[in-house]
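TICKET: design request
STATUS: open
ATTACHED STRUCTURE:
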């Protein structure tokens, strides 16, 4: 028998397009512009699949899902929405929608979803978790780019599981924010969210920080100490900068993940681990594995569901929204109201954002606090962006790692890699090149490719700069509009 698809959307053109596309694919289609009619059809036992919009004149489509699931648990519901936020994705998924499609969507994708929805058997007892009662409507993640919508969909799906997640992305792309959203909307939201940053803890203390220690386990261990695994019991453990974890701690963590229990340093009694693990790194862990710096078996244990957060320059369409959001936030914190003129917005879109969303947030705050006029122009931004490049290490505020410490860490790893068999006879040049290259590249970006200005800023002779650009193969960008 031909399956019948019920469609509810108050936009006539969407109804027409869907009717044609589904009709051509051999489905029967019934459409309506309101929720009440859809509900009547469902109650009457009609249709094999529902596709519904969220905002309809008489009712919110999301509110219909639990009712549909109650009267017809086998009827799959696909939600489409122009309100493509994390909350819509999370609500649709948690109320039991089969799939969530942000508008505008690709018709081929819709047809694929319809085919999947009709083909896959419904799991009995496959009940969605109860929704957070007073669901916080404030949006934790801003951005409507296709890349962010894909992330919302993944986050929404992951809130119904305890799977281990590995978040990869440059510094300041929102890795911790995503980890928190996974916790706050997930099954373990009643438990604690405990974060530990591997790069911020002295390597010899990492194991005791993670697993705790008994009194007298080592010099200075004057009392028993709870580790983060224990503190996070029933909740989520966020292992930030996992790529910086020392080898011995990696081995121990792997064992804990394999065996599901851990023992405090100096302790004997194993304790069952009851945490959901979310790891994050800005490093290329596959490269670290090749260099012998990261255990491959640990990587596969952690990389169960990978999420890649794209750098801000790959989702420029989110920049105006984010900038507005941060200016509003600054205002809510008591700073003066500011707005950006269209030239300023263009500048923001053209900039490369090496510090990603964090850099944008800091810039907006700085402008809100220090800029004299209410409207921020392109010229004002040009001045700020040049300075930003020089102080990018400060982008994280007080917690940012001083450049010298970061270098020390990198060089140590570099040397460790060489110890393990890779022969090197040009380490000096290679390390210097590692520093020189981003320095020159970012200065050129700040001057929009103007080499005369860049040479002046760097205090280098123009010809020296030109030679370095050639030798280091720095890509040359010119006059970003
Ligand atoms: N999509 C977003 N919407 C709103 N704010 C964001 C978004 N992404 C990041 N931010 C903000 O940017 C700042 C940096 O985010 P976060 O700390 O999550 O990044 P990160 O990738 O974990 O950085 P790092 O690797 O340096 O620790 C935070 O203040 C966060 O609130």
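STATUS: resolved
RESOLUTION: sequence designed for all positions
ATTACHED SEQUENCE:
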């Amino acid at each position: 028998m031909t399956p019948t698809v019920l469609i509810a959307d108050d936009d006539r053109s969407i109804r027409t397009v869907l009717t044609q596309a589904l009709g051509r694919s051999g489905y029967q289609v019934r459409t309506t512009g309101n929720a009440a009619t859809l509900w009547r059809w469902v109650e009457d036992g009609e249709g094999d699949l529902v596709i519904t919009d969220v905002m309809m004149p008489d009712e919110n489509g999301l509110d219909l899902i639990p009712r549909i699931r109650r009267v017809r648990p086998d009827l799959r519901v696909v939600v489409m929405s122009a309100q493509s936020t994390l909350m819509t994705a999370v609500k649709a998924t948690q109320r039991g929608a089969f799939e969530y499609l942000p508008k505008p969507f690709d018709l081929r994708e819709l047809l694929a979803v319809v085919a999947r929805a009709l083909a896959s058997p419904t799991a009995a007892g496959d009940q969605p978790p109860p929704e957070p009662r007073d669901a916080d409507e404030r949006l934790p993640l801003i951005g409507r780019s296709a890349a962010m919508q894909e992330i919302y969909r993944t986050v929404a799906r992951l809130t119904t599981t305890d799977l281990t997640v590995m978040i990869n992305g440059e510094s300041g792309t929102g890795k911790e924010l995503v980890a928190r959203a996974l916790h706050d909307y997930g099954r373990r939201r009643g438990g604690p969210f405990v974060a530990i940053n591997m790069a911020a803890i002295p390597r010899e203390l990492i194991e005791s920080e993670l697993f705790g220690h008994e009194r007298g386990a080592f010099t200075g261990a004057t009392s028993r100490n709870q580790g983060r695994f224990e503190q996070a019991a029933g909740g989520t453990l966020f292992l930030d900068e996992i790529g910086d974890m020392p080898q011995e701690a990696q081995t121990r963590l792997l064992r804990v993940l394999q065996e599901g229990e851990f023992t405090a340093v100096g302790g004997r009694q194993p304790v069952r681990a009851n945490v959901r693990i979310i790891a994050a790194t800005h490093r290329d862990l596959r490269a670290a594995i090749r260099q012998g710096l990261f255990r491959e078996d640990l990587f596969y244990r952690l990389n169960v569901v990978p999420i890649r957060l794209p750098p801000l320059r790959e989702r420029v369409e989110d920049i105006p929204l984010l900038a507005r959001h941060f200016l509003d936030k600054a205002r809510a914190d008591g700073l003066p109201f500011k707005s950006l003129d269209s030239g300023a917005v263009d500048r923001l879109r053209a900039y490369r954002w090496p510090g990603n969303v964090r850099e944008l947030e800091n810039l907006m705050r700085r402008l809100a606090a220090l800029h004299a006029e209410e409207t921020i122009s392109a010229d004002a931004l040009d001045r700020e962006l040049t300075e930003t490049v020089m102080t990018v290490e400060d982008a994280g505020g007080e917690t940012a790692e001083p450049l010298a410490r970061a270098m020390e860490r990198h060089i140590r790893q570099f040397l460790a890699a060489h110890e393990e068999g890779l022969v090197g006879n040009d380490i000096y040049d290679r390390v210097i090149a590692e520093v020189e290259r981003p320095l020159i590249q970012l200065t050129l970006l700040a001057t929009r490719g103007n080499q005369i200005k860049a040479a002046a800023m760097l205090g280098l002779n123009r010809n020296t700069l030109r030679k370095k650009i050639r030798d280091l193969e720095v890509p040359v960008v010119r006059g970003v509009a």
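CLOSING REMARK: The chain has four domains: 4-119, 146-308, 315-390, 424-481. Residues 132-136, 389-399 have pLDDT under 50 and may be disordered.
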